[in-house]
Amino acid sequence: MKARIESFPTAKPEKLDVPAVAIQAMIKAIREEHKLELHSFLILRHGKLIWEEYFRENEADARHSLYSVSKSFTSTAIGLAEAQGLLSVEDKLYSFFPEHAALCDSETKDRVKLKHLLMMGSGFENNEGKIFKDRKKNPDLVLGALSQPVIHEPGTVFNYYTLGTYLLSAAFSRVNPEGIHAYLKRKLFEPMGFAKSAWSKDLLGVPMGGFGLSLTAYDMLRLGQLYLQNGAWEGQQLLPASYVQAATAKQIDNGPAASTSDWGAGYGYQFWRNTFGGFRADGMFGQYIVVLPDYDAVIVMTSHLNDMQVPLTVLREKLLPKLK
What we know:
The protein is α+β, with helices and mostly antiparallel strands. The chain folds into two domains: 167 residues, 3-Layer(aba) Sandwich (Beta-lactamase), CATH 3.40.710; 82 residues, no CATH class. It has a six-stranded antiparallel beta sheet with strand order 2-1-11-10-9-8, sandwiched between helices.
């Protein structure tokens, strides 16, 4: 097993104005009061690791399935590729798939751009459940996705569309056949010291994009800190700050103005906005990279939950009021 490369110095929480009892109270509330299954809990503040705790044997070194946290890594690959001139978020989706030009059969479809997929506002009718279910029989997911009607003007209506993230991965593969996983390993994971990773592919060899990435919790921290630092890492600008700002800003409304849900506070480029400030990557069953620029902090949790709002509510109520 490859030894973990340590990226972050450690410090006691109190040295950085974080009461250890507040962290313990948050963990206790999740695990004991709400009886939810937490696998790991890590906090960075001012670039220092002030808490690292695991709740399963060998969890520290285990790859954890990230589910939809994968989407934020796909977005990162798009940002890197744009900086390299391989593509632009303003590129039209169908331009990447000339063999399917006949499927671009309306002016509305022709207006779908990569940025609309990134913000979950492509306007496609969401039939992804059937398309994913039938993929053994119909393995060409691109064909299935591009065949769907566009029922909303692109950029106007939020619809959580994992198949759209897959299309981002497929479009990337057209300009760089190595695919987003190999590209990220070369451009980001290796320079940043990631230990190990895996990403599931479709039957045609394209990384799934919207899910399927597995990483250690510690490596999830690295992505959060990269975004907290506006794309800079150890003196190098790995990801353009302009892309970080665009990806984590509210690109589209995803809930009513008075929404108290952390899934209704706005959506960026495959990142969620938080009701309590900052932004996050999150995935099914409670995988989180919570980035809090106002507190200069990153919080990572991996879990198996049946209520994903609980950890965010507990964070807002028990930990944030104690941070200076």
